[in-house]
Design goal:
mainly beta; 2 domains; three-stranded antiparallel sheet; 2 helices; 43% strand; binds ligand 6U4; nucleus; NUDIX_hydrolase-like_dom_sf; 8-oxo-7,8-dihydroguanosine triphosphate pyrophosphatase activity; magnesium; metal ion binding
């Protein structure tokens, strides 16, 4: 079937939104998060050794379990830290960086932006970015949408939480995905994004992050979802889990 790609939005349209000057302080985490990992144990010379796995990946080994109920956290250097469930981690965990991603879906089409600079440049994606100090995730989602596409949501609801793990970055990214069905203003090209409408049947997955073909279909079906994605060298998807939910707990 011939492609029915919709035209690019006019480049010359001035964006009405003028972002405030950048702030220097950024919020990189909400509260410390304990990730659940699989721990297989074996006895070695009278001591119990734990090997931690998450998403099929071995994270590390060498922890001694002394009979208490232990929880494990993934660490920067790929090892595991132990706590007894009351917050006394022996090593500090790396909390995920919080980000937002807003996808505008109206009728049978979706608004994506070609990322012009920074992380993910060259990919089509929704609009979003890092949650800054002093703002809620929802507020960050509204701000990033406005900064990157020039539009303001009339209604917006959270649809998913995706966590991206990288073997070349110790800090996971927790991306909160929102749906906008109605908005005010006109999408226009900004310094960061060049917006463009795509028919739902023609989403350009070959020019998007490798996880997108896995969860976009659930987003398009109107479902709630939570996923974990593991990347090699930032861009190559190695493994994942994705769960469709009745309710999002965060
Ligand atoms: N694997 C992935 N799949 C996906 O669909 N979106 C991803 C993704 N990894 C990151 N993203 C999204 C999350 C977020 O909306 C965006 C990355 O945000 P940015 O780095 O552009 O943040 P900022 O706009 O705050 O950037 P700066 O102002 O340049 O620091 O890419």
């Amino acid at each position: 079937m011939p492609s029915t790609t919709l035209p690019l939005l006019p480049h010359s349209l001035p964006c009405l939104y003028h972002p405030p000057p950048p702030t220097t302080s950024k919020l990189f985490s909400s509260s410390p998060t304990t990730r659940s990992l699989t721990c297989s144990t074996q006895e070695v010379r009278g001591r119990v050794l734990c090997t931690a796995h998450s998403g099929g990946r071995k994270l590390g080994a060498g922890m001694e379990v002394d009979g208490r109920d232990m929880s494990l956290g993934a660490m920067a250097n790929g090892t595991a830290a132990a706590g007894d469930g009351d917050g006394d981690e022996k090593q500090k965990q790396i909390s995920p960086k919080l980000l937002t991603l807003v996808i505008v879906k109206k009728g049978e089409k979706v608004l994506l932006g070609m990322k012009k600079r920074g992380f993910g440049a060259g990919y089509f994606n929704g609009f979003g970015g890092k949650v800054e100090a002093g703002e809620t995730i929802y507020e960050a989602a509204v701000r990033e949408l406005q900064e990157e596409s020039g539009i303001v949501p009339v209604s917006m609801e959270k649809r998913g939480i995706l966590t991206f793990h990288f073997d070349d970055n110790p800090q996971p990214w927790e991306v909160h995905v929102y749906h906008v069905g109605d908005y005010t203003g006109e999408p226009c090209e900004t310094e960061e994004m060049a917006p463009r409408w795509f028919p739902l049947a023609d989403i350009p997955y070959d020019k998007m992050w490798q996880d997108d073909p896995i969860w976009y279909p659930e987003f398009i079906r109107g479902r709630l979802f939570k996923g974990e994605f593991y990347f090699h060298n930032t861009h190559t998807l190695v493994s994942h889990t994705l769960h469709v939910l009745q309710k999002l707990d965060a």
